[in-house]
Amino acid sequence: MAVVSTHRDEQALTLTFVAEFAASVDRVWQVWQDPRQLERWWGPPTWPATFDRHEFVVGGQSRYHMTGPEGEKARGWWTITAIDAPHRLEFEDGFSDENGEPVDADDPIRMTVTIEPVESGTRMTTVAAFASTDRMEQLVAMGMAEGMREAMGQIDALLARQEVRKGTES
To answer: What InterPro entries does this protein map onto (predicted)?
Structure first.
């Protein structure tokens, strides 16, 4: 089912994405925890991600880059600020320089992911919070909302492949 709604709240300076999946909470949690699975969906289809580092602990650092259709690279970073497995993840996200070092650490996007069971499987709500209207507008103009929808739209196929693989191993 993937993304079922998006909401832009200019007062709260947030973008919210709600997605639902026909998979367990634990299984959906894995797409965040495992860097190889994260790479299969974090970037939009035309900008796939590569995680060079993914320390999935509070205080852990992640470094990644997305590669565009012409080979160009957009680099990013995360600092994980809270984990309540398998239901909640919080991290700061931003752009990096060529060496993977944050260039906007004083103005990160604060991401909060909640994962909860629903009748059809699992609901994942991802909220991106911005420090200022200017920052929010800059990232929306760069295509963040569309990119996140496209990226999250890849999770269903990833979950299905993993479930098929799991089913064939027994």
So the answer is: ASHA1/2-like_C (IPR013538), START-like_dom_sf (IPR023393)
**What pTM was computed for the model?**
0.91
> Which structure tokens are listed for 117?
């069971």
* 115 close to 28: Cβ distance less than 8 angstroms: yes
Q: How far, in whole angstroms, is CA 95 from its chain's centroid?
A: 14
Residue pLDDT, tens place only, 41-53: 999 999 999 999 9
Q: Which two tokens stand for residue 89?
A: 């993840």
Domains of the chain: 31-163 (3.30.530.20)
Given 3-state DSSP classes, what are the helix, strand and coil percentages for the chain, each rounded to the nearest 5? 30, 40, 30
Which pairs from 45-49 meet CB under 8 Å and 24+ separation?
A: 45/150, 45/154, 47/74, 47/147
Residue with tokens 């260039």: 103
